[in-house]
Design goal:
CATH topology: Four Helix Bundle (Hemerythrin (Met), subunit A)
Number of helices: 6
Number of domains: 1
Number of strands: 0
Distance between the termini: 35 Å
Amino acid sequence: MTHISLKKYKQTTVSAAKDASPYKLVSMLFQELLGNIASAKGEIEQGNVAKKGELISKSLTIISVLEGSIDFENGGEISNNLAALYNYCSELLLDANIKNDTAILDEVIQILLPIKNSWDAIPTENQDAVSF
């Protein structure tokens, strides 16, 4: 991607996030998170340790943002379970980073994908009820 294209992509992404509903923001975070983890797998396979570390660091940041958006007051046990899953995924990402282990990254994807799919399955009429 050329410098101009990359700059335009970043501007478009930031603009889309600014205009997105809370529901859409979480959806975008999940998409970015899973993309970063998949890319980190590729970087491990290519031996690019620095880029892998950068992608895993970004993934950890996104998980932190997702965890910070949990509504513990209204979410009950589901909120606690989700926070525990995010914490576990963070531990796995750190372990995968240290060990350069793509199988651990696959495990994180297997945990996060059903959460993302459940989020994406929220009916349109209920998406406006999502808040932070």
